[in-house]
């Protein structure tokens, strides 16, 4: 994907909106990813182009990352949005909550292969992560590695056709209205095969929910 489409999506995010990463505790999640890969702050700095001091402040929740910083993290670390959004385990508690997302009012976060619209983004400590995605990828070769994240995922095609590539199965064609449920720690990737970019609805569960 060229920078043009990413910039186009970025322009659609109104300026002045609060960073989406605070309720998701991105700092704790970033540190978890870094340690799991045995990376130092300098390693992450070289991969993302972000200063070590900035990364340290993010991990210690001293700053709220901007959209461009999150883009550098997902691109530099070769991870997809759900991987960054899957929060670490927390204590459970129950309260009456709800979060309405009007049509076209979700948080937009484009990547080279997907353009995500995060839904229900105001709620912290969610057990599910819902998002609508425009699948920009047209070839499996556009992926540097498998997309994988903890938990399970439900996916439904809202528009167009996709090819679902997965680590342990042959590629599977899904048409508009088709849906699939799968373990999302299994490597997977989506490619649009219709004339228009396909649009899918995905709901990811947290891996610690069992």
TrEMBL record:
Residues 30-84 form the HTH cro/C1-type domain. GO terms for cellular component: cytosol. It comes from the Bacteria. InterPro entries: Cro/C1-type_HTH, Cupin_2, Lambda_DNA-bd_dom_sf, RmlC-like_jellyroll, RmlC_Cupin_sf, TransReg_Diox_bact_type. GO terms for molecular function: DNA binding; DNA-binding transcription factor activity. Gene3D superfamilies: Jelly Rolls, lambda repressor-like DNA-binding domains. The keyword DNA-binding applies. Pfam families: Cupin_2, HTH_3. The keyword DNA-binding applies. Keywords: DNA-binding. This is XRE family transcriptional regulator. It comes from Vreelandella populi. The lineage of its organism: Bacteria, Pseudomonadati, Pseudomonadota, Gammaproteobacteria, Oceanospirillales.
